[in-house]
Amino acid sequence: MKRRAFLALSTAAATAAAAPTLAGPAAATTGTGLDTAALRQAVSGLPDGDATAALVRVGGRAGAWHGGGGVHDLASGRAADPHARFRAGSTTKVVTAAAVLRLAAARRVDPDAPVQHYLPRLFRGTEFHRPVSVRQLLNHTSGIPAGIGWGDAFADQYAHRFDVLPPLKVVTSALAKRPEFLPGTRQHYLNINYTILGLLIERVTGQSYADVATRLVLRPAGMRHTYFPGADPTIRGAHNRGYQLVDGEFVDVTEWVQADRWAAGDMISTTADLERLIVSLFRGRIVPAPQLKEMFTVPAGIDGATRTAGLQRMDLGDLTFWGKTGARYGYNTAIAAARDLSRTLVYSVNATDAKDEEMNPVAQRIVMAAARGA
Asked: Residue 30: left (phi > 0), alpha (psi -120 to 50), or beta?
């Protein structure tokens, strides 16, 4: 999900009080402060043209609710697995940012230091002469442009779904261009910032990104069902199939190599694990308090900036939520929470338009229902 859709999430939540309350499929519930009927209704009636399945977890002081709707796959029509794994897309950036901040807490990375200091060979001979700080990579103010990919159209990307595009090649292609803007003067959300952070993590630790992220973030958060697939196009374990609606036909997009997304978006997870991530993170169990502030600090003096180290700020009336969305073909994901964890939300929607600029209608219904009373 791109920036406009994430802002739509904020708008939808702000108007949630006007949504109707209806009955729907059964789900697990504790507490009485949540509008559980609206949550059940939000995931009912699937599959339809917008999504084939949806999994949701809501928590906080008002209680907890988790449920789902839709089908495991269109061929069998059997019910969606509520504990299924899915492609978590750019919510991977939350893990990457947390890993970098943990390295900063251990004094192995200085957020104010230029990334050129850590990766000198990578930047040698490029036009990136001005220092780009690690912090500017974290909050997308680096000015480094996007690297190569398999094209923008679905057909082009689908044709290459089993091909591997190494992250280093993506970064090299980006650094072969001119800077988009002076570092620290604008905010432009791009995967390239976190792909470079993945290389930084490997350079500083001498270990693979996946190993470091697992050791520093996944294990402390108790994310036992989350992993990084790399060049493996499959989703291991129980999962619901993903589809893209193309010219009125559902195209199965479940198997897809996401290696080029790497530290920016190549993670497979579950709603329970992502809930563990945001709760553990906000409670200071993963990143120490001094470094954790980076995740709740929007860069000052930049018009329109809403992104921090790994998260994005949403203002809903008098409340502020912090979260991250992710979208890969067939899978649309979001995690969000108030800073005090008074309300948390995680969802995975098997959207048939997961890379659309607009917010998926099923995801919008979920957000509207989850935001009631927040």
From this structure: beta
Enumerate the β-bridge partners of residue 319. Answer: 316
Strands 86-87 and 64-70, sheet pairing: unpaired
Residues linked to residue 50 through DSSP beta bridges, in sequence order: none
Closest Cα to residue 116, out of 130, 95, 103? 130
Using CA atoms, how far apart are residues 86 and 237, in angstroms rounded to an integer?
10
Type of residue numbered 106: A
Name the percent of the chain lying above pLDDT 90: 86
Q: Is the pLDDT of residue 279 over 90?
A: yes
Determine whether 11 is exposed, middle or buried from the number of CB atoms within 10 Å of its CB (0-12, 13-18, 19+).
Answer: middle
* Residue 332, pLDDT score: 97
Amino acid at 113: A
Cα–Cα distances (Å) from 335 to 179, 312, 345, 349, 370, in that order, read 31, 10, 6, 12, 12
Closest CA to 158 of 365, 12, 354, 297: 354
Q: Please state the φ and ψ torsions of residue 144, each to the nearest 5 degrees.
A: -80, 130
Q: Which structure tokens are listed for 122? A: 């990578």
Q: Is the dihedral of CA 31, 37, 43, 46 positive or negative?
A: positive
- The pLDDT tens digits of the residues spanning 298-311 come to 999 999 999 999 99
Structure tokens of 32?
């009485």
And the tokens for 345? Answer: 């939300």
SS3 state at 70: strand
pLDDT beyond 90 at 15: no
Backbone phi and psi for residue 346, each to the nearest 5 degrees, phi listed first: -135, 135
Q: Which two tokens stand for residue 260?
A: 């080029």
Tell the burial category of 368 from Cβ atoms under 10 Å away from its Cβ (0-12, 13-18, 19+).
buried
How confident is the model at residue 32, as a pLDDT? 52
Cis link prior to 233 (omega < 30° from 0)? no
